[in-house]
Automatic annotation (TrEMBL):
Region of interest: Disordered: 19-43
Protein name: C-type lysozyme inhibitor domain-containing protein
Superkingdom per UniProt: Bacteria
Classification of source organism: Bacteria, Pseudomonadati, Pseudomonadota, Gammaproteobacteria, Lysobacterales
Origin species: Lysobacter arseniciresistens ZS79
Amino acid sequence: MSVVGTLVGAGLLACAAPEAPPPVDSSPAAATPSPAPVTPIDTPAIDSGPALYHCDNGDVIEVRFGYYDATVRLADDTTLTLPRAQSASMPGSDVYVGRAIALEREGDRLRLTRDGEASRCGRRAPGAS
């Protein structure tokens, strides 16, 4: 019995003994290259300065376009900053919307809607009268 008891006892000790932790890899990890910056295709271009637009209702407006908004100076000297409506903008055309005014730009042409009335506006070249 003592041989059987010794074997059983040794088996129980073997089951109860904790395993050694796996060895730790101390070699440095390979550097992961950082991805190149991505520019969304619907990011509007920034103009270098304000642009004058002559509208079919006789108004002349000044607009400065940014990445996320457009600052508009209307014919009555009211200046508004309109946020870009990303959901309505597409590559090649941008929409900016405020409370009572909306501005749609496509190339050198604008559609200005103010209090429900729309005007079409075009950009004049510098020095044009």
